[in-house]
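Structure request: Retrovirus-related Pol polyprotein from transposon 412, Araneus ventricosus.
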Amino acid sequence: MLVDTGANVTLLRTDLAQKLKEQLIYMAPNISLKTATGEKTEIRGKLDASIECGSRKFHHRIYVADITDSCILGLDFLLKFNFIVDLEKNEIRTGESFSALAKKRTIILSRSECLIQGVPEVPGQFRYAVMDFPSQVSQKGILVAATLVDLERETIPVRILNLNSKPKILDKGAVIATCEPVVDIIARPREFSGVQHLPSILENLEILNEKQRREVRKLLKEFQNLFSTCDADVGRCNMTQHIINTGDHPSIKQYPRRLPLARKEEADNLVKEMVDNGIIEESSGPWTSPIVLVKKKDGSTRFCVDYRKLNEITKKKTVIPYHE
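Returned structure:
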């Protein structure tokens, strides 16, 4: 992302805008922008999106164009949300950030962590704030844990880690952290509960004795985040990226196959379910393959895609051995 105070509007590259879930509104090609090099580029569309900076999200109107950078954060965004551009520290920050000061002189031992008392310098109109460390402190080997704090208290807890090989001294009144006001706090249900029981199929292990069952239960509870909690919790592997090499073959665009009205509604529900669960996302491109709905033995439907045409032109990475 490029921060450009010379850009009047915030821009997003066209190919990235098409991948977003936000509603992209296409515009007639009658509005153009003048770039820093003097060239003209057309505005392809616009969308309302959330831009995340630090611990806060900002909703803003973004214009879509064929630009080189992935995103250009323009002057309209900086002025609207009162951002401060600090060229000396090479950072931008919101004008609503405040400092937290050390209540008393504290010595932090080398390579150790401690909890000290801080005094917030935050106006009284805010009840909660997210506390983080300022860059000038972190560069000296001091890290402060990001914490949600209650500003109605006289002092707030500040967890500090000294990464240096020598003790660090924090004088009384020294700036130890920055605070950003919290506007909304959204309560989210915990993924796991301390009283959650294992499924009966894992509880009734008849081939094991009681001691072995206790050890298995302990092991499964320790690694319970590896198990699915519901049908929608399928997980996602982000350790690798799959690439389909089609070479210089032209794109294959197959038209959708006709479905009965009842099956069409079922297909729409399955697509919506996969979108809501983050399995698939909306996109537009020259490659399309038809869907196939297959009935399973239990009567439910398996959503499939007929990729046979694509598989025929895909360049194989390895040669499959032939056995007679």
